[in-house]
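[agent] plan:
  1. take the single chain provided in the ticket
  2. run structure prediction with default settings
  3. attach structure tokens to the ticket
  4. add a short note for the reviewer (M.T.)
[agent] executing step 1
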Amino acid sequence: MTLWAAKLLMLLSFFRGTPGSPAAQDICVFLGEEEQNRLYEDGDVVIGGLFPLHYRPVSSLPTYRTKPTPIAYKFFISRALRWIQTMIFAIKEINQHSDFLPELKLGFHIRDSSDDIPIALRESLLLVNGQPERGSRVGSESGDKGVERNINESKLSCASVQRSVSPVIIGGAASGVSMALLRSLGSFHIPLVSYFASCSCLSNQQDFPTFMRTMPSDAFQVRALASLVSYFGWTWVGVIGVESDYARFAIQHFLQESVQFGVCVAYTHFYPVNPSRQALDELVDVIQMASSKVIINFCSESEMQVILREIRRRNITDLQWIASEAWATATLLWENFGDLLKGTLGFAIQRVDVIPGLKQHLLSLKPSTVHTSAFLAEFWEELFNCRLNGSVNSHSHMVNYHDRLPCKGTENLEDVYSSYSDVTQLRVSYNVYKAVYLVAHALQDMSHCKVGKGPFLNGTCADPKNLKPQHLVHYMKRANFSVLGTKVSFDQNGDPIAYYDLLNWQRNPDGSLHLVKVGLYDAASPAGSSVVINDSLIQWPFGKQVCSSQTGLRPCSPLRILYALLIKTSANVFVLLCNTLS
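[agent] step 2 finished; step 3 output follows
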């Protein structure tokens, strides 16, 4: 057993037993109930995956007298299941290529991060510790891959467990979750490849040397947003964000960039992830009373839903929303708040037109097979509002599960719309796809190493079948490849070259959402030409461009904010007063 895995087994002894017990010696024993909410397939290299399938836990008060019940959540994120399926599809696609990693089989071990740091930490430790799914198939204790057995008990040889250890994790989605994972797993040199975490703070290689991402850094997004508001003459804007590292760093950078573009920030306001009634009132009071009608919001779709619900209750309709990339393509918001979001503008990460074969893979789910997977069963029962026979789904989302009628068995994904099967906006999915290929290309480069000419001590090479995470990091940092006709490379911080599509939220004749590309931002373009916008394609909220404020545009060039004052007016509200020199 490698040293890094041994350290992790000792760390997890706090969850599973004490050092010196059988669990820490010849037999690995999982103490407690094993969660079935995961997807697992064995391989020579098992790639870990963390995806936010749920959010908004239902609050409950512990009694400290009985064992806590599993956490229940209000919402299931269908598009996150598409991201999971994209990871599985990419791995199976690689395994089917005889000329790509011919001597290695890739496996996967995927868990739900629930967009929650404590949950994500626990699940990540299970990934890198190697606890496979009960009932899954693993190689024999002798290491013979041709001999397999079913796991029907919790006692496993440590050798069997070791083979299912994930030396790399694709995840997490949120920047805060990714930071927490890196701080806990960084000591073991385990690489984390994020497909959606964009905080510029994660570019700090001194703090996060094992971090890479296929998602551009927010430093570029903020520059693009400042260029956008300046282009339309919106020199008086409000900026809000959820209390997170993602929003804090983004807003801090926007305040710096906005000065260079002659943009004045009317106010900034941070709000909790799960705002109380008071916190929500404070936020919407600021929005309602401010003269600025253009608002940039750094948050995810879950926080945006809460805000829009209160905006509607107060009948506030004269706003121009600027979406951060975290919710720029969140089609779920349109279903309930389309009337408030028409005309929204936002930069979204690069889209690929098609991932060949992915659509068919997504639609291959059938009622006869999904009931054995908690993830797939939950999705099926939520989408068709029915109960599967023998379902292992444990989530009902505030609905009485037994009130649902049994599934008929004739349900078909092609008959209904779902963000799961919608492949018209393959952005995050494309990032997941590239993340899998990043790991695969690193493994391929590793397998081509010549003994005596290797990059490690005394010219040694790494063994892909006995992988050490730090060796994988070495090759991942140097990866340079093409996927679906697009070149993929990374800078010294592990960040990809930034490219965004500028999207405009428009209403189709049937009332559905049409995300129209009306411009782009290309960080590789020469200075001054990185932003391209086609005004004629834009559909505005009220048929015409919104002014920055109720009284029109407020000039605020750098010369006029020489005496700009940042005045704290409450615990978390800041107002930027732009003094004009007369």
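[agent] step 4 note for reviewer: Residues 382 and 396 are 8 Å apart (CA to CA).
[agent] ticket updated
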